[in-house]
Amino acid sequence: MANSDNYDVAIIGAGLAGTAIARHISGSNARIIVIDAGNDVGQGASSATSGIWHTGFDTLPSSPLSMLVKRGYLMLQEYAFRANIPIEKTGSIAVAWGDDEIAMLTEMERRAHLNGFTNARLLTQQEVLDIEYALGPNVVAGLEIPDEGLVCSWTTALAFATQARNNDVDFWFGVRVAAAQRRPDLLWRLTMNSGEEIVAKYVVNAAGVFCDDVDAMFGHDDFTIVPTVGTYLTFDKLSRPLFSHIITPVLGAVGRASISPTIYGNTSIGPVLRASASKTDSEVTPDAITQLVEFGEFAAPRLLDFEVTSMHAGSVPISSKNEMHVQEHSAQRYICVGALGSKGLTTCMAIAEEVSRHLTAMGFQARRPLASTIPVMPNIGEHFVRPYQRQEFAQSAAGYGDIVCFCERVTRAEIEDALASAIPPNDVAGIMRRTRATMGRCQGADCSARVRDMLSAPR
């Protein structure tokens, strides 16, 4: 909630971009608030990402996007190691499924080398199948990019928010900015849908799929977000050994999807994209399922021998201009960050760095810098040591030997730690994003009642 009615900086949106910006500019006695219509950080598009740690190898060399992705890649790598965020360099292979796609593979290799990824190499059909035996015979050729990988988007947003909160940033959930008005003293009055108001000297719009709506409140019509939904299928953990690399389509390929190991030990296929009339649409449609299954039969038939653990869909912030939007309006002391698309997870820290520079140029001064310690987050990655695997934890009396979620091996102590954290969860989905409880084979049929009891217990 808002602990004051007067702030130096108001950030609209608590997704990956908003929390990264809050973390980057915190650590002083500047008064900062993050506002989000949801009840937690990292929701919306930030929660529905593919979890791919992009290198930017395929971006146009020397373009603004290329610079952001390459800078963000390195920043996120360093931060993830220090904050204990699950991150894994698996490498990826862009696959041509037809002869007409080989020319694009060659262009992608050219871009990769110009972007500094000289270890990218073209593969023949047999070389692809030697590396990824579970792919079907329709493979024609491939391009290996060894530096691509996976990262946990949930823990990333939570780490940013935790560090910001430890630096006295306020978080106000469950309210939506309904209006923005410039006062005679040039401060912004932000009115919530609840009727409550705050005043801020600087405003950063990182409202995800709603960033164009917020942008319009500040008098701008530079772009629109095209409501788009991406759908994924997640397969049982027994399928994880099938693939060691992320398998992606070539640029511009129609009717293709990615096949990827996940940081949580599963395998996923998706997304297939569809247009929608709603920015909050998260429906998994029969048509989307059919498209994913048909592509799976075409590309990796062995994958379909395994059970589907879950299906999910989420909004993708795609701009009508098909590009990222990072725009500062100096005279208004207002910055808009939107349409980050599939590379938002990788670029968020570089974008935060750029936003900080814009704020400084506008006159924002972070007074009396304070110590800013990077938090060490609980590990929820499958290929790292989990609490139940640590003998000193399991033998303690603190609840690390008491399994609540048997599918994902989540202990009572992990859930209790999440509930007592700087940014605690407010519902079962929030506990899932912090611990993996309820996201396994039974999808919470066994453990959700106990999780709800822990959530509702006095604390």
TrEMBL record:
Residues 403-456 form the BFD-like [2Fe-2S]-binding domain. Pfam families: DAO, Fer2_BFD. Residues 8-356 form the FAD dependent oxidoreductase domain. Transmembrane segments: none annotated. CDD domains: GlpA-like_Fer2_BFD-like. This is Unannotated protein. It comes from freshwater metagenome.
